[in-house]
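Allow me, if you will, to draw on your knowledge of protein folds for a short while. I have a record of one protein: its chain in single-letter code and its fold written as discrete structure tokens. I remain grateful for any guidance, and I place the record below:
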Amino acid sequence: MSSLWNRRAQNAAGTAVLVAAIAALIIVYILFLSPEDRADLLGEGGGDQGVFPGGDTEGGLTNPVTVLRENIGMISVARSNTIEHTIPSTKILTQVNADEIKRIEALYVKRGAFEEKTKSIKFTMDGAITHNLLLSFNVKTASGRLIILLNGEEIFNKKVTESSPKPIPLDMDYLDIENELVFMVSSPGGAFWKINEYQLENILISADIVDYSRSFAEQHFSMSENEYQNIENAELKYTPNCQPGANAPLSVVLNSQIIFSGLPLCNAVNRIETAKEILIQGDNALTFQSQQGIYEINNVKLKTTLKQAVDPTYYFDIPPNLYEYVDRRKADVFVLLRFTDPDTVKQGTITVNGHKAHFKTNGAYYHTRISSYAQDGSNSIKITPDSDSLEITELRVDVA
């Protein structure tokens, strides 16, 4: 019988040793956990569930009491009062080039009492912008008056006495996409035996073709959400290298809206105040354009002045009867942050009644105790992001 009791005593002692060993291992395991994991295990730090410990302490609160709930949204901090966007230099010009539209080696027209010979030349205007359209030719034989029609409209009717007469302007009002010049000669009248004739050589239709392909230049710059939301004012600066009086007006277009049109100050800094409403969060397009002359646009910069960053402060009240639980350590005060992005690292500072506590989490939620910072009655709390911005779906303060 005594041996049975001895065996039972030995088994009990062995069990006690085993329990003690397991407890020691658990304590060592907890001690070697990282601070974040240890806080999660003990219910003291950030997590991803959005629930609070507490509520089961003897003599404590049965259910958590929410004293603050705010849907915050985006909060940001401007690290510099100004942001300057440097935009590449550019050159715009309108080129005018003399161009040959149609050339004929020779033509012959005549008219007598009983016969007439005319000549037609057709040419196409392909949509290019043209100026100073001219008809020129050399005269080898001439008698009577030379008559020329453009699309049925008479543009010339006189006797030519020079071998190389001055070019004849072709009226732009008479021109179309498809055009026809008709050459003919005047009648000899009662001299029925006579024939009036013209033999022309090197017939040329020419024009000044205006090339607008380089008359404008578009540049782009990007604006972050944080910058756009905090803009107080904006200014565009540029220096146009040009010859005063030699150019047409310059237009400056920002995001399809004209912000300047006129003659700029050549070889000097030009400034344009720009309204926030014209700017865009994300990609912005800036265009310089002119219909004549040459502009070299240098030192292009858009500078934004930002509002002073102010972290929003929120207030909550802990009534005396509720704070009594906190004061007697029968309840704690917790702050919960819920984020829109569950995957990225979120970090910043929580300030409660002037006391600061840093937080860092990559979860969708973060919660921590702030009992030692809370006070009876009115309390304040604000969140300051470490990065440029932080999006918080919900800020909540509970007593539990």
Q: What stands out?
A: Residues 48 and 371 are 21 Å apart (CA to CA). The chain has four helices and 27 strands.
